[in-house]
Batch of 3 targets.
Target 1
Amino acid sequence: MIIILKQNINLRDKEYLRSFLEDKGFKVREIIGEAETIFGAVGNISIDLRQVEILSGVSRVIPISKPYKLASRELKKENTIVNIGRVKIGGNRIAVIAGPCAVESKEQMFKAAQAVRESGAVMLRGGAFKPRTSPYSFQGMGEEGLKILKDAGDSVGLPVVSEIVGTEYVDMMKDYVDVFQIGARNMQNFELLKAVGAIGMPVVLKRGLSATIEEWLMAAEYLMAHGSDNIILCERGIRTFETYTRNTLDLSAIPVVQKLSHLPIIVDPSHATGLRAKVPPMALAAIAAGADGLVVEVHPDPDNAMSDGPQSLYPEEFEKLMRDLQALSPVVGKEIEKIHENRPINVRTTDKASNIIDKNIAFQGVQGAYSEKAIHRYFGDDVIAVPQPEFIDVFETVLQGKASFGVIPVENSLAGTINENIDLLLRYPDIAVVGEYKLRIIHNLIGMPGAVLKDIRKVYSHPQGLAQCADFFEKHKEMKGIPFYDTAGAVEHLSDLKDPSCAAIAGEEAARVYGMNIIKESIETNPRNYTKFFILTRADRAEYEQANRAAFVFSTPDKPGALFSCLKVLADSGINMNKLESRPIQGKPWQYMFFLSVDIPEDSHAFENALDKLRNFSEDLRVLGKYKVD
Ligand code: PEP
Ligand code: MN
């Protein structure tokens, strides 16, 4: 059962409730969610729910209808994010685990580790105990293999995952692996599930060869009931009548599981297909279907692999797949998970004074704004997004050292440049651009809980939000768009209005933050709707190593061909321009500044030389920032 606690429950009542349930034989889990704290009580005991409902501090008691309890979405509404050191799996990330089927030698593993790390994998795989169909096939290197796997992972800074095949290995393996894998053949080895669950470490739980989704979730329940909360489900294909591929990849399991469970789900296209050429298309399809990540077999020399060579990617193929995933990620509104070292890499972290406020990142708007989402996508979940009333306050907060970075929108793919922010960049020479982030914008129609589409008459949003949903308003002439200062602010306003005929257009986060409902998802006219954000910091903190993009401004003398001569310098130096915008110069009517963003060529001297030349043809050239884009 799920016991929803009153917000003001005191510690004594909470502890009484816990021991009351435990005395009756329940296992109790406390789950602290965004909106409420709950106790999940599971066990094979029947009890009259009213006995719990009357206890002090209890708000409501709801029975869980599914046979799996701890794994069920009924118990926990929010997605579980599994933390493995610096790596996170779940939420808005695409985490890619890669490596060979089996550990074969030190040389093979170190080569594989290097290759997959370079291409962007966040975890290294390698089997040391191989559950092979034939007793005569290579069975794995055992503990010796685990040592190699761990050393190879350490050599490139990747956590490692390896399969466990028997309870007797739990103690030995826990010192070598960061994540246990329970293989398809062992999904219903209940003794193994109990023993691995009791260790409390993260587990990749593969779907059994012929397991139903319910059986699979029940296996996860075994792990959770015995003490592990961090389960990553892995769809790896199931047995069907089809024999062309090794298994049949059940992609529909992804959305099904996501509805039933809060646990992250990843896909193994290698074992699902058994054929190298089929791995990349199915990997992309899995991500398109909503998977939280992939496990891909990659071998430095697949032709001589001791197991699963025909389905293992060559390192170059894996690199290509990662690039394709990069292109796909904004479409599904996710970010490829990376090993977060000290992002952004081009900002000094040794600046002592700033360490205190390093976690504060300023943005304009209220909680739930798209800028806030961009902050967490770019910096991760551990930073504090600090709302500011106006864009200028973002600049001031960063300048005064109250936030270490600021995040501002600079351009929308449909509505164009946000000129106010370009002007602010010109006005604040002590602020530098140190990064950029592109976020896919999905607008939703959001209303009061219980509000329905046909009753909506007034729709509040930022003018850009309203404009980007023009087709929706065309179809719903009964609705009137009302401009508001920002999108998330409009949702906050709704929660004050409490009027079921009013709605707002904003992102899903805003609906969640203000306890509102999404009436209609994704109502933007054009799904190719992206906003580019600039990451700002104080110019004296910015460092420009490894930069591959630059933003700068200059003005030109008032004479024929002035702009042409400047652009010719860039063209002659082979510098690709991604943006050119003219802005009126304040106080000088009819004179213009030009704002540019360009790719810095590999030979950065060519870029510096070009800038020097440019200074001869232009006036007031100022570099706003150099930074790295992926
Ligand atoms: C493996 O990942 O190496 C493996 C044997 O997978 P599965 O259990 O899915 O067959
Ligand atoms: Mn394999």
Note: The domain at 82-131+138-336 is CATH 3.20.20.70 (TIM Barrel).
Target 2
Amino acid sequence: MAEKPVLTLYNTLTRSKEPFAPIDPDNVRMYVCGPTVYDFAHIGNARPVIVFDVLFRLLRHVYGEDHVTYARNITDVDDKINARALRDFGKEIEDGRLSLNEAIRRVTEKTANQFHADIAALGAMQPTHEPRATEFVQPRGDGKVDMITLIERLIERGHAYQAGGEVLFDTQSMADYGQLSKRNLDEQQAGARVAVDAHKRNPGDFVLWKLSSPEEPGWESPWGRGRPGWHIECSAMSAAYLGETFDIHGGGLDLIFPHHENEIAQSRCAHGTPVMSNVWMHNGFLQVEGRKMSKSEGNFFTISELLHEEKFGGRKWPGEVLRLAMLMTHYREPIDFSVKRLEEAERLLAKWPAGGNPAEGRVDESVRAPLLDDLNTVAAVQALHALAQCANADPLMLPVFAASAELLGVLPKKAEVSKALEDSIETLIQLRLEMLKAKNFAEADKIRDDLAEKGIQLKDGKDPGTGERVTTWEVRR
Ligand code: AMP
Ligand code: ZN
């Protein structure tokens, strides 16, 4: 078998770039924290989806399509979801037409469907598994671990305790708690406010389970009817699909603390393992005017608004433009999102050839090498652009361009052209030929440039039979 190329990844756990060595090269396993489905995803949320989609494609390229398992969860249990269900269906619930649980399911179903439609437009592949938190609360009977079982194990092993209507993780019980975020317990204690959460043994202790009031959604458990804390769901679902120790865990920077730190604490203490995931990867923030885009700041645009409404810069933006715009910054750097950046991506895409078959070509080393170096998509996009120019000049290069573009998920599609558009292109071509005959070159060039702007490229040539000037056209994107 051919030697596998070396992939290096920046590991938040060690704060350094390391050669990647999977536990089992026949089954490389990656987990990424997915969306909480109570509202439209914003374009900041699209960043981890796109970044880890590129990594998924790269891992499949290096280890083989059938040798990578990618799990990304859907968080469909959260107090924000309950609040949204009450807001949207309050009347129906009051009238008795809908139970709270049904209302919650409507919110999560609708939002999950919307999320799928949004990210499909961004060219993201389906992960291998997309588990929903609500399906992993109680014992399942299929051998896959669940949240209640994990919490029971943590109590048995002396890492969790019951207090004040909650089950809490005892951070003091774990000697090396805080390795990922490099916080130690003393720092946390000093920073914590006194008198808050008097039932906690240590201020940093976090909720594994909390009791629900009769109106709140809940599941039966050994500690009474209640619902899980946020962190435990990822410990359960990652173990269910990837095992107690796996290769890569990803998400946005904001998840390092407390979410990922606490996932590590739960998983390692429940399984008695030294490691949860070997590599931890975090994408930087997408910002507007220097501030992280977030729901709570109110400075967000949804993916759907960008795709389907004329809200961002007064126009709609194709998904592939948004995707490429993201990849033009390294995943660990912040992105200052702007119309200018989208336009830049759009200009590049317009020059790239469509119609190549990736199956007929090999990924070019100029694109692959930077990706293998901690996902340097910036250099990869530059190399891809150079390849596009080669392919435009030499059709034999088209499959190589296509295979390389596919690795980044930015392969231009051959656009469908309607009959009406076809007719109007033909009319414009005739008009331009007349302008050229009349030596009105400015007008002729304007027609050509306007069409190019729309992705229609004109090619001038000579009819080999008559020697007359002929113009053909093709869709570049
Ligand atoms: P949330 O629904 O807030 O838990 O976010 C889902 C994913 O999006 C997580 O991986 C977050 O880290 C990530 N995320 C949220 N906001 C941003 C942002 N402004 N830029 C980049 N990633 C973000
Ligand atoms: Zn998570």
Note: The longest helix spans residues 100-121.
Target 3
Amino acid sequence: MKADLLLGLQWGDEGKGKIVDVLAPKYDVVARFQGGPNAGHTLEFDGHKHVLRSIPSGVFAKGAITNVIGNGVVLDPVLFRGEAEQLEADGVDLHSILKISKKAHLIMPTHRLLDAAGERAMGSGKIGTTGKGIGPTYTDKVSRHGLRVGDTLREDFAERYAAARDAHLARLAAMGATPADNFAALEQEWLDAVAYLRTFALTDTEHYINKTLDADHSVLCEGAQGTMLDVDFGSYPFVTSSNTVAAGACTGLGIAPGRIGNVYGIFKAYCTRVGSGPFPTELFDETGATIRNIGHEYGAVTGRERRCGWLDLVALRYAVMINGATHLIMMKSDVLDGFDTIKVCTAYRMPDGTVTTDFPYSVGDNAEGAGIVEPIYEELPGWKTDLSKARTEAELPQAFRDYIAFIEEKVGVPVAVISVGPDREETIIR
Ligand code: GDP
Ligand code: IMO
Ligand code: MG
């Protein structure tokens, strides 16, 4: 069997959590392949809302589904513990359904301090990170100084931790940052959480995933963030520190490229971005505020306002190309219900006046502002219908179907799933 992927095609927060939860009952395994608690994946069903950060969104699905935290993920034991204990309180028997890669890297308290100090040092040019220590942890991984989940099983773990911490403290001191008075308490909380982490199945998950596929069992890989935040292909340096694209599932789980099956690329009917960096279709006017209010566009992790704008098909086509998306999933269609007309960006006018439909090297390199390219829009009629009640394709108004057909034609990939509300049930599978 081949592994299917589900990943974000925009700047994150596309609705990955919701759709993984919807698709999970069809799979034997759901596996996260990168990112960490910078992610906030929201699931809604039975009138309850759950936000997952490091734990895969397959944990609520009925049936014998195993969830895997892959080696490409960075894990903060304290945040993991909070999330896991909440799930167990909600009746999820997490200890029996979760496996954690021994090769996943650990986020230490000092990584969070380094994240904050790095942002402070950049001033107005800051990335606007989630402050969870993501960048410093991946930096340690790549510079071969990281601590891994498997290290917690070693007898000398305490010494390894202390050596890494001391190196971080020296770096912090050089940046003029001293840990707060409660640092010792934070450290103790972290060490206690590491002991809690060890009560889970710490596993060589690359073997587990490949044996699962060998046995013809199915695997759904869940991405975090989105393609435009990818460290290689996103709007660098305003990106996260991992490969959020399809290739990230190969390295983040140990799946060979030939074992990838369907690639579900998920996008909103418009665009949002949280944090700094260029955003070509950003709306600074009343329309942007309306989308934010109707779409409740506030970060699931930080509560920050999400910047809003029209759908950007130049960026979407690029994301489809980089990921080899085989199917599209369109989210939050209902948010545009009230608009008389809807704009879609189909090309960019470059600073030299030329027009392109190929996503360029740079769309801007400053922290704020709409960027250096000028979006060229086509305007489509709105559908002016409450989509949230629709459960079948037949119930969808013609103007909305035309909107989807327009996107499919421009991007060249079919829209397989349409989401018309946050609840599990508010989903149309075509
Ligand atoms: P993720 O990070 O990709 O999992 O997405 P988030 O959970 O951060 O953000 C998506 C938000 O939109 C959440 O609050 C969801 O509950 C909500 N949502 C998901 N799908 C829909 C939809 O089709 N319509 C509306 N109105 N809200 C949705
Ligand atoms: P999900 O999985 C939206 C953004 C941050 C910041 C940049 C770098 O919920 O879609 P980091 O803390 O990763 O170093 O921050 O990336 N960012 C996200 N934006 N959704 C996310 O995750 C994000 N994870 C990180 O706002 O701009
Ligand atoms: Mg999110």
Note: The longest helix spans residues 157-174.
